[in-house]
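hiii so my PI (J.) wants the whole complex modelled not just the main chain, which honestly fair. so below is everything: two entries, each one labled with what it is. i double checked the lines twice but i was tired so who knows lol
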Amino acid sequence: GNSVTQMEGPVTLSEEAFLTINCTYTATGYPSLFWYVQYPGEGLQLLLKATKADDKGSNKGFEATYRKETTSFHLEKGSVQVSDSAVYFCALSDRGGSNYKLTFGKGTLLTVNP
Amino acid sequence: DSGVTQTPKHLITATGQRVTLRCSPRSGDLSVYWYQQSLDQGLQFLIQYYNGEERAKGNILERFSAQQFPDLHSELNLSSLELGDSALYFCASSTGALNTGELFFGEGSRLTVL
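here's the output for the full assembly
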């Protein structure tokens, strides 16, 4: 079955540091890939997505590139802010039968200190 | 604000009891999804309804049930509660029947079973 593996946290950075959160996946088909973010006390929000190989998703300074050869979708940001402190979830959506199945990673807690 | 409303935000109850969680999807969305988030299991898909009909089933226990009403709001019923059912329960919604990965999440209902 499908699975998503992302780096375990927590990750603690200083403001303006470079961020990478690794995500690799296993899928039988050609999945779409997503990063969701969960700010404290809130629900998950879609941060960015990529639907095919070599696509780059970007939003709010975050980027991730769909790498089919390495089955990866690593999240990066060049300069993090305190307001980026949140839990980040990598996810994939793949067709299974008559519907798509959305599979989430376990999440990575990011704390950014001033 | 995602437009998805969940009530109650917090719920404390005892083992063996039954609770009902309620969700109103975003205006215009026909699909409602229920997810359970716990520290050990991560984010687990429970069930999806589309326009009043069950569309997909995930890791939902037999003690749990859900329905979607004609006004498209949904309720998740949890019965014979156990300590291990303590978790954050999220509702999400989307426009169509297929879960292509772009979901809008509510803020969740935190259930504590004592």
